[in-house]
Specification:
rod-shaped; 3 helices
Length: 92
């Protein structure tokens, strides 16, 4: 439920509603087609972001081109350093 109220999804839904109401009685032009294509891309990116956040929160790997991948890599490095430090203490 937490992921459904992300700003990306809310923005995409709002934009889709506005686009739909604005294009009901308008003729189909190249601008309208581009607007719908842009909206589709926006929805795809918003859904992709939700999937990445969901996977990262579960400790699963995310795609390397995701903005979350850098944060996940830093957290992984930090955890590895902590484990190495604990192993060093246990050897003494």
């Amino acid at each position: 439920m937490n992921y459904l109220f992300g700003t990306g999804l809310i923005g995409a839904i709002t934009a889709g509603k506005t686009l739909l109401s604005g294009s009901r009685n308008a003729p189909i032009t190249w601008r309208a087609v581009l607007a719908w294509a842009s909206w589709g891309i926006t929805v795809a990116l918003a859904v992709g972001a939700v999937v990445d956040v969901y996977r990262a929160n579960r400790g699963l790997p995310v795609a390397p081109d995701s903005p979350i991948a850098a944060k996940q890599a830093k957290e992984r490095e930090k955890a590895e350093k902590q484990r190495a430090k604990e192993r060093g203490r246990n050897r003494k």
